[in-house]
From TrEMBL:
Substrate binds at H77, H175. Binds 2 divalent metal cations per subunit. Has a high-affinity and a low affinity metal-binding site. The true nature of the physiological cofactor is under debate. The enzyme is active with cobalt, zinc, manganese or divalent iron ions. Most likely, methionine aminopeptidases function as mononuclear Fe(2+)-metalloproteases under physiological conditions, and the catalytically relevant metal-binding site has been assigned to the histidine-containing high-affinity site. GO terms for cellular component: cytosol. A divalent metal cation 1 binds at D94, D105, E232. It catalyses: Release of N-terminal amino acids, preferentially methionine, from peptides and arylamides. This is Methionine aminopeptidase. It comes from Terribacillus aidingensis. Monomer.
Length: 251
C-alpha cells in the first residue's frame, strides 16, 4: 500500500533530511586518502547522538553499522572497514537518519584525492541522472517516467543503470511501497500523488549493469569489476513540484 504523508509527518522528515544533509557536508570535508570508512561511520554515530538522532539502518535485518560504505566496484551496501581509502578511489556513503520518528535517506559518492577522468565523468553523469529523475517526480506522472528519464540519459552517455536495486517509499519505515526503478518505460506504473515521499537513488556503472553478491550477503558489486556510483535524495511530491528533503544547498 502506498501511504501519503501528513503535513506533520513531512515536517518531521524535513528536519531529518536537514540533519542528514549536514552530515554529508561534514563527510565531504573528511574524505581524503588515508581515512577509513570505519572512522567515517564512527563520526556519523557521534554526530547523530549529539543531535538526538539515530541511525535507522543499524540493526535493520541485522545490519551492524550506521552507514553503508561502497568503494569502487561495490554498487551498494558495502560495510565500513579499517583499510584506508586510497588516492583515486571513489566511495559511496549511504545512510538513513531517524530524528524524532522522521526518516530521511541519502547516498553520495565522493572522489578520494585525485581520481581518473573516467571516475570523474561517472560521478558527473550519475549525479545528473538523479536530477533527471527528480524532474519527473510530479503529481500525476507515473513512476515509469522517473526511471525512463534516468535510463535514457545515462545510456545515451554510454553508461549502464543497475536494475537489481531501486528507490522506494519511505516513512515511517525505511522501505515502503512503491518501488522506484531507475529504468523502464514512460507512462507505466502507479501515479505519483501529492504527499508521497520517495527516494530516487540511481546506481550507474561504467560497464555492465549486472551485480553479484559478496559472501556477507549484503554487499553488491559489479559483475565485471567496473566502477559504480550512486547519488540519492529523499523527495516529497507536492503540487508545486518535487521538494528535496535532503538538499545539501547545491540544488
Amino acid at each position: 500500500m502506498i501511504n501519503r504523508k501528513s503535513t506533520r509527518e513531512i515536517e518531521m522528515m524535513r528536519a531529518a533530511g536537514k540533519l542528514l544533509a549536514a552530515i554529508h557536508k561534514e563527510i565531504r570535508k573528511m574524505i581524503k586518502p588515508g581515512i577509513t570508512t570505519m572512522e567515517i561511520d564512527q563520526f556519523v554515530e557521534r554526530y547523530l547522538e549529539k543531535h538526538g538522532a539515530t541511525a535507522e539502518q543499524k540493526g535493520y535485518n541485522g545490519y551492524a553499522y550506521a552507514t553503508c560504505a561502497s568503494i569502487n566496484d561495490e554498487i551498494c551496501h558495502g560495510f565500513p572497514r579499517k583499510e584506508p581509502l586510497k588516492n583515486g578511489d571513489i566511495v559511496t556513503i549511504d545512510m538513513v537518519v531517524n530524528l524524532n520518528g522522521g526518516l530521511a535517506d541519502s547516498a553520495w559518492t565522493y572522489a578520494v584525492g585525485e581520481v581518473s577522468e573516467a571516475a570523474e565523468r561517472l560521478l558527473e553523469v550519475t549525479k545528473n541522472s538523479l536530477y533527471k529523475g527528480i524532474e519527473k517526480a510530479l503529481p500525476g506522472s507515473r513512476i515509469g517516467d522517473i526511471g525512463h528519464a534516468i535510463q535514457q540519459y545515462a545510456e545515451a552517455e554510454g553508461y549502464s543503470v543497475v536494475r537489481d536495486f531501486t528507490g522506494h517509499g519511505i516513512g515511517p519505515t525505511i522501505h515502503e511501497d512503491p518501488h522506484i526503478p531507475h529504468f523502464g518505460l514512460p507512462n507505466k506504473g502507479p501515479r505519483l500523488k501529492e504527499g508521497m515521499v520517495i527516494t530516487i537513488e540511481p546506481m550507474i556503472n561504467i560497464g555492465e549493469w549486472g551485480s553479484q553478491m559478496d559472501d556477507n550477503n549484503w554487499t553488491a558489486r559489479t559483475v565485471d569489476g567496473s566502477l559504480s556510483a550512486q547519488y540519492e535524495h529523499t523527495i516529497v511530491i507536492t503540487k508545486d513540484g518535487p521538494v528535496i528533503l535532503t538538499d545539501q544547498d547545491e540544488e
